Amino acid sequence: MNLERAFSQNYSFSVSAGREHLFAGFMMAGILALFMQFHVQAAASAAKGWLLVANKGDHTLGIIDPESCRQIATVDEDGITGHELAASVDGRRAFVPIYGNSGVGHPGTDGRLLRVIDLEQRKIVGTVDFGKGVRPHCAVVNPKTGLLYITTELDNSVTVIDPQTLKIIGTVPTTQPEAHMLAVTRDGRRGYTANVGPGTVSVLDLEAKKVLAVIPISPTTQRISLSVDDRWVFTSDQTKPQLAVIDTAANKIKGWVPMSGTGYGTAPTPNGRWLVVALPGSNKVAAVDLDSMKVAHEVEVPKAPQEVLVRPDGAVAYVSCDASKQVAVIDLQNWKVDKLIDASAGADGLAWAAR
Question: How many domains does the chain have?
Answer without folding.
Answer: 1
